[in-house]
Amino acid sequence: MRQFKAAGKECPYEIGREISEKSGGYPYYVQRFSYALFEVSSNEEIQPADIDAGLKKMLDEEGSNFSGMERELAPGQKPLLKALAAEPTQSPFAVDYQQKHRLRALGSIQNSLKKLESLDFVEKDNGGVYRLTDPIFALWINNKSREIVVNSGMFPTPRSVSFHFQIYNDIIKQGCSTISFNYGT
Prior knowledge:
- About 55% of the residues lie in helices and about 5% in strands.
- By secondary structure, it is mostly helical.
- The strands form 2 sheets. Strands 1-2 form a two-stranded antiparallel ribbon. Strands 3-4 form a two-stranded antiparallel sheet.
């Protein structure tokens, strides 16, 4: 918060806490997120509304790095990575988890998990929960999963459809497997 003040902007304590929480406390991401917030804020004081814009800016800037990490994976490993980004778990081998995230056979999950751990993309924490080691990589994956781009020309407007993560989470929690969209003009 001193750095914001030294550069001529105020950062309220609550926003500083949110920077730390969203960045997982990783010093690199705390700095990156703070810098992105500073750049997107047009006010003398960082506003709560700046949080989403700053996070999006940081995710966009880290995107090429994360895309490169994702390209290292075989196609069979990506579904497990996406599942663990969306929902860390103690039981990636549980049948309900496999079905919910449309994962392949048990052997494929075991091999994928070993590979993801060897690349240091996934870890098992002290509580026995498998999660992505990089919280911002997890956010980037989840953010990518939220946006659906329609490029087929079937729907003249809008070309892209975004839905809010909370709505998506609610749908998943309710166990719905079909999502319908109304493509209005």
